[in-house]
Amino acid sequence: MKGIATEKFHGSYRGYAKQWRGLGLNTAFFISLFIVSFSHRAFRLHEDHLWAHLLYQTEIMTIETALYLVIVVSSTLIAVGLFIFSLGWKEIHRGGGGELVTTGLYSIMRHPQYLGLILIVVAFLVRWPTLPTLLFAPYFIWKYVLLAKREDGELERKFGENFTRYKKRVPEFIPSLTP
To answer: CA nearest 7: which of 98, 94, 86?
Structure first.
């Protein structure tokens, strides 16, 4: 068996149209995030960065160290998220069409692409804790979890007992490092 092929990638034109329509809110979020983040923070990052300022005010670390930590953590989360998302996407599309993919990343977690996106959302929340990220990050994470559950239902209907066995053996998001 090869990877999880879903109709959103291998379906008809309607499947693609539905997926693109769903990008509207995501796109609006990221555009507003970058506008808000870069418009007033470009030159005063240390003065109004929530997490770095909190670490500094509680005397846990200097402001420079706190800013460095925030940048390293968020950059690492973005890199790992993009890597996981890309590998998951590659494995699905390598699988061709219509087969249950259970190899590669899909042998240790059922939804690597959603995990990658969740890590990226968390990275933006760490990097730019603005009102949009504080409001929308939990919403997007919740939506990705709901999408994963809906996808599981569709795959269970499509692949039956094969997917049920796979679902019992492989966790949704947190990778299983044991066979």
So the answer is: 98
Burial class (CB in 10 A: 0-12, 13-18, 19+), 129: buried
Domain ranges of the chain: 3-169
Q: Mapping DSSP to helix (H, G, I), strand (E, B) and coil, where does residue 4 land?
A: strand
- Residue 13 scores a pLDDT above 90: no
CA distance 37 to 43: 11
**Structure tokens given for 7:** 């109709």
Alpha-carbon distances, residue 12 vs 15, 32, 96, 100, 142 (angstroms): 5, 32, 15, 18, 27
Mean pLDDT of the chain: 77
CA distance 12 to 166: 26
Q: Model confidence over 94-120: pLDDT tens digits?
A: 766 678 888 889 989 999 999 999 999
Q: CA 46 to CA 52: how far, in whole Å?
A: 7
